[in-house]
Structures are given as structure tokens and as C-alpha cells.
Amino acid sequence: MSTIFNKIIKREIPAKIIYEDDDVIAFLDIAQNTKGHTLVIPKESTTSILTASEDVVTKVNLVAQKLAIDLVKIFDAKGVNILTNANEVAGQTVFHYHVHVIPRYTEDELKFKTSNTNFDLDEIYNEILSHIKQTH
């Protein structure tokens, strides 16, 4: 499936590329949430972190870490968010695995709203352990 990111990789559409190697490319997000907001993507087409190989996840995240360090220094940011969305319910809009590197300057630039829930932590824990024992 061809996405806008595949077109950027193939240079069919322009992008502000700030990093590239044989496997990974990084460019400024056209919708800057904060100054320096960057997307890091594998050149290999895969839908999300849920479908990417361990090798691809490692390469993308190592580049994201390096760029996060650089962006914090360059823009004197106070912190950084590094995140990925997998599937539409999580906010993924381009179905090509990508990691956002978002420099942070103030606490109110970007909000992650949590909801107060009343889950049984022991039940969740046991369900996870049961599944892991069956699949690993």
C-alpha cells in the first residue's frame, strides 16, 4: 500500500529531510505540534510498530533517540516526547510505521488525557501473564 511516506522516500513529493541512511529517513512533520517536531520512518514499508520487525523497530528508535538529543540541544527544549500510534483508534492516520519526536518547551503544548478507571490490577496482571506463558 503506497502512502504519503512512500512518496517522500521515493522523492515523489518534497519533505524537509533532516536525516537519512540506508534504512531510515527522518523529516519535519508538516503539522508542527512544537518547533522541531520530526517523523522518523523506516524505508521498509510496514503498517505500524505492531507489524514491524525487531530490526526495523530498533533502527527507527535509535535514530529517534539521536534526533531527540539533537533537537533538545538545538532548540533548548525542556524535554521531548517520543511516541508512535498503532491503528486508527490510537490516532494513526498514515499507515506506515513512524515515530514522532516532539521537543517540549512548556507543559501545556501537548496534552495526553487520561481517564480515571477502576480496573482490577490483579486481574489484568494475571491475564497478561497467562497469555505470555502460552505464547512465549
What does this structure look like?
- The structure is a single chain.
- The chain is α+β, with helices and mostly antiparallel strands.
- The protein has helices at about 5-10, 55-75, 120-135, and strands spanning about 15-20, 25-30, 40, 80-85, 100-105.
- The protein has a single domain, classed as HIT family, subunit A, CATH 3.30.428.10.
- The protein has a 5-stranded antiparallel β-sheet, covered by helices on one side.
- Strand 1 and strand 2 form a beta hairpin.
- The radius of gyration is 17 Å and the shape is globular.
Write a brief structural summary:
By secondary structure, the protein is α+β, with helices and mostly antiparallel strands. It is built from 3 helices and 5 strands. It has a single domain, classed as HIT family, subunit A, CATH 3.30.428.
Q: What is the topology?
A:
Layout: H1 4-9, E1 17-20, E2 24-28, E3 38-42, H2 54-75, E4 79-83, E5 99-104, H3 121-135
Antiparallel strand pairs: 1-2, 2-3, 3-5, 4-5
- Strand tally is 5
Structural class estimated from helices and strands: alpha+beta
Strand content range: 15-25%
CATH class: Alpha Beta
CATH architecture group name: 2-Layer Sandwich
Helix share, percent: 25-40%
How are the strands ordered across the major sheet?
A: 1-2-3-5-4
Let me know the largest β-sheet: 5 strands, antiparallel
List the domain count as a whole number: 1
The CATH superfamily bears the name HIT-like
Number of helices: 3
Run of helices and strands: HEEEHEEH
Give the C-alpha Rg. Answer: 17 Å
